[in-house]
Structures are given as structure tokens and as C-alpha cells.
Design a protein that fits this description.
Length: about 220
DNA sequence: GACCAGGCACATC
DNA sequence: GATGTGCATGGT
């Protein structure tokens, strides 16, 4: 099988097993961006509480969020963990949005994807995964989002070596799949679902949809 | 009580 | 340039 066929086979198995994941869980672009920052190394259930607090406070809009100082914002996002750090990161984003784009997310539509990615990476607190999540799920750009689950599944099934970096793993998917926002959306969501349910750091993968793939290290490797 | 969760920046060697 | 560490809450 070619790499493309392997990647599509994995996708098909996961989709057949789990069905559509309906990502991103958020109503507006700004809510998606806020969620992308808050979910850094944090489970979504915790993030959902923080977002509910922001919603209740009427602060899920760039101007309202930006108007808050740290003493007001930190308690609202406390359930998401790293709350002092993430309060700064949210503010770094809104500061950039107002400084460079007048606070209007729609103006980002005119910016070319590579350039927008570089600009996002220039914001302190936004790394590759957060930037790509924003690009794919908030900006509808065909960018493949890589995360720890992506790497874990790919390594366990022998698609890559363990020491591959973020951009290399991203390139593996982007160079072998059509640049399709819907496909990238669902694929990443399915990989996260697989990671949550089966591909734990401690390898125990009963009933994983990928169990009978031709691999040697699905269970044994890290 | 240990481990994990949809990372990232910064220090240190 | 690789490797280590702090950040923090909540579920299993």
C-alpha cells in the first residue's frame, strides 16, 4: 500500500468506527480560537467550563475579552488550568488582533494562509498546534493539525520514526492527502477520539479500530 | 495518590 | 540544537 492508501485506510476505519465528530465544538470563530488556546495540554471538559464562564460574562467577543484585566479574566478561566498563563495568552491574541487587524476576525480572510500562520506563531503562547487549529477550525484553511495523538498513532503503526518533528509529521499528511478542509477537520478529530479512547500513553488498546492493521508495534511501543 | 489531559516558552547544558 | 522544567485544574 502507498502512504496515501495507508492514511486513507486509517481514516476510513476510524470514521466507520466513530462516525463524524462534529468539530470544532464552538459556535463562533472567536469561541474556537479561545478554545484552542485554553485546551493546550488540558482536557476539553475543563475548557468547556471556562468557556461557559466567559459566555455567561458576555466576554466571548474580542472587544469584551480584551477589556478585561487579569484580575477579572483569570477567575473566569480558572477551570481550564494554567489560568494565569492562559489569561496572558488570550490577551496576547486579542492585542495582536486589535493592533494589526482592527479587532475584526473577518479581516483575516484576506491574509494568505502561510503568512497568517507565521503571524499567529509570532504571538507568544501560540505554537504550531494552536496556530494550525485556529487556521483549520476557525479560518477554514486546509491545514493538517498535528498533536500528541497524531504522533502516537503514526508511531505505533510504523508510519513514522518516533523522533520526527511537528512539521515533518504535518507534511506526511498534507503531502499525501487532498487539501480538503472537511477531510482534515474530521481526520484530526478522529485521531483525538482514538487517542482518548484507546491509544493511551500506557499502551492498552482493546477493541481499537486499528488493531488488525499490519503493524508490529501497535501495542508494544510507547 | 499517581497519572493524564486536543502545548508552549524559557532556562540550561 | 537537544533536553528539562514550570504552568494548574479536574477526571480516572
Amino acid at each position: 500500500m502507498t502512504m496515501r492508501q495507508q492514511l486513507m485506510d486509517i481514516y476510513q476505519r476510524l470514521f466507520d468506527a466513530f462516525g463524524p465528530q462534529h468539530w470544532w465544538p464552538g459556535q463562533t470563530r472567536f469561541e474556537i480560537i479561545v478554545g484552542a488556546i485554553l485546551t493546550q495540554n488540558t482536557s476539553w471538559t475543563n475548557v468547556a467550563r471556562a468557556i461557559a464562564n466567559l459566555q455567561a460574562a458576555g466576554c466571548l467577543e474580542p472587544d469584551r475579552l480584551h477589556a478585561l484585566d487579569a484580575a477579572e479574566l483569570e477567575p473566569l478561566i480558572r477551570p481550564a488550568g494554567y489560568f494565569r498563563l492562559k489569561a496572558k495568552r488570550l490577551r496576547n491574541f486579542t492585542q495582536w488582533l486589535f493592533d494589526e487587524y482592527g479587532g475584526a476576525l473577518e479581516t483575516l480572510d484576506a491574509v494568505e494562509t502561510r503568512r497568517l500562520r507565521e503571524e499567529l506563531l509570532g504571538i507568544s503562547g501560540i505554537g504550531p498546534e494552536t496556530a494550525d487549529s485556529i487556521l483549520l477550525y476557525a479560518m477554514d484553511r486546509p491545514v493538517f493539525v498535528v498533536d500528541t495523538y497524531t504522533a502516537r498513532v503514526a508511531v505505533r503503526h510504523g508510519l513514522i520514526e518516533p523522533d520526527i518533528n511537528y512539521e515533518q509529521l504535518q507534511y506526511l499528511f498534507e503531502s499525501n492527502l487532498e487539501p480538503d478542509v472537511t477531510l482534515f477537520n474530521e481526520y484530526h478529530a478522529l485521531l483525538v477520539r482514538t487517542g482518548k479512547d484507546f491509544c493511551k500513553p500506557t499502551p492498552r488498546c482493546p477493541a481499537c479500530p486499528l488493531n488488525d492493521l499490519p503493524h508490529e508495534i501497535h501495542i508494544e511501543s510507547t
